[in-house]
Amino acid sequence: MNRLTVRLPILISIIVLSSSPTQPQERKPGDLRIEPSVFKAANGETVEAESGVLVVLENRSRPGSRLIELSFMRLKSRNSKPGVPILYLVGGPGGQAIAQVRMFFPQYSNLLEAGDLILLDQRGTGTSNPNLNCIEKLNYPLDKPLEREELLRMIKEASLACARAWREKGVDLEAYNTLENAADVEALREALKIDRLNLFGTSYGTHLALAVIRRYGAHLNRVILAGIEGPDHTYKLPSQIDQNFAEIAALVRADSKIGNDMPDLLDAIRAIASRLEKEPAAVELPDPATQRKVKIVVGRFDFQLFLAIFPGRVARIKMLPATLDRMMQGDFTALAQFSLAARREPTGSAMSFMMDCSSSASAERWERIKREEKDSLAGAVIDFPFPDVCEAWNAPDLGSAFRSPVESSVPILFISGGLDGRTPASNAEEVRRGFPNSHHLIVENAGHVDATMFTTKTKEVMVDFLLGKPVTIDKIPAPPLEFMPLKKNENPMKRIQRPERIGVERPEG
């Protein structure tokens, strides 16, 4: 049968329906669509759920703003008498809450004992519409070491191209900031008719949660923040990174298996940096894209960027001594693999850049970063390519009021990893000055919002807190780090993939 003959009645019916007076009205802010669903985790577990889409204004401060869609899932509680629903705010910025929980479900599943768990893909991310990923990639030459200014120029060019492409499609990039993000949280609470909401934020999600508390705290019940990024903590302090390396060095010295062979980790870092500054290393390795061998030249800045992926990442910290030991012996394969990926990596997400650029930092914090980077082991690469790249995105600064301390009587549980160099425990202590009804829990030997933070005991404390029970402990012990043995044949970094854009944290799960 002719395909056109089959399609003709369907086309006619579409035309008739589209011109019918019973045609649905145009979308408007607050429109909500929910349907039954099943959440299936990567480990095979399933949970009864609802999938939903909420329509909101892209820019609430701009008359005539277009509409965008926020996707979310609501996982049903295991409790026969569930408590207040919990909204999870994922980190990044740019993380995808639904995909994150699906991949690492065991870290989050205990929350279902306290109440329904709501997963919101924040504006510009995941299954929300639009998703603001950039298609641009870097293409830094392989025959010379990375140089800061040249790499920054390439990132700026890619950023300009991405920003231009999205703006040409009608996206109002100025609307992708933490204040609009916080307003989305409130809009979802209202749409779901939840009187008082629990929040659970990790990393950037804590930065967002604090903005929600400041503006909409009257509608919050309890809040858990893990890996705290305060209102003025978007960009990291070099001194905090150095402190993290010093803590790692102390653990290495005390380690019975490798301590005698690497008595001073910090000296090794300085020696490698000095060597690469005087004489860059040429390494031949297979190109993952073509499987052909290529030669790549790495230098001091490659090494500084490489160091920036370790603070707060326990899985990587365990491999750091062995990796440095191989470099001390002249084997720079791990550094070359990292640098090859860095030279070709995707630009990232427009949402991520806009969020960080608009949050920015106070003049005092910038001054401190500049002052500290001069004597730091890795300089200020923990923040690279910020703040310079923000010129390409033209993101309006949210201002000093946004970065001022938050004060609230909302009950809040702060959780920090003892080895978290990205959002150290000192961040939580600084932020909690404005929260008289708060408790700070430190998980020893845990990193930045990774699996090591969410021990069985940590998850029990979180559930108890959400159910209104008091927190009576300040620290949770964790097993000592088991460093990879030195001088093994296998490349220590072989199993480590690089999930984040240069200098910008990404959730590890």
What is the CA-based Rg, rounded? 24 Å
By CATH reckoning, the class of the domain at 32-133 and 173-234 and 399-476 would read Alpha Beta
Strand order of the largest sheet: 1-2-3-5-4-6-7-10-11-12
Largest sheet: 10 strands, mixed
Classified in CATH, the superfamily of the domain at 32-133 and 173-234 and 399-476 is Alpha/Beta hydrolase fold, catalytic domain
The average pLDDT is 91
- Percent range of helical residues: 25-40%
Low-confidence stretches: 1-24, 495-509
Q: What order do the SSEs take from the amino end to the carboxyl end, as H and E?
A: HEEEEHHEHHEHEHHEEHHHHHHHHEHEHE
Supply the number of helical segments.
18
**General form:** globular
How many E strands?
Answer: 12
CATH-assigned fold name of the domain at 32-133 and 173-234 and 399-476: Rossmann fold
CATH architecture type of the domain at 32-133 and 173-234 and 399-476? 3-Layer(aba) Sandwich
Structural class: alpha/beta
Distance between the termini: 53 Å
Question: Beta-sheet strand percentage?
Answer: 15-25%
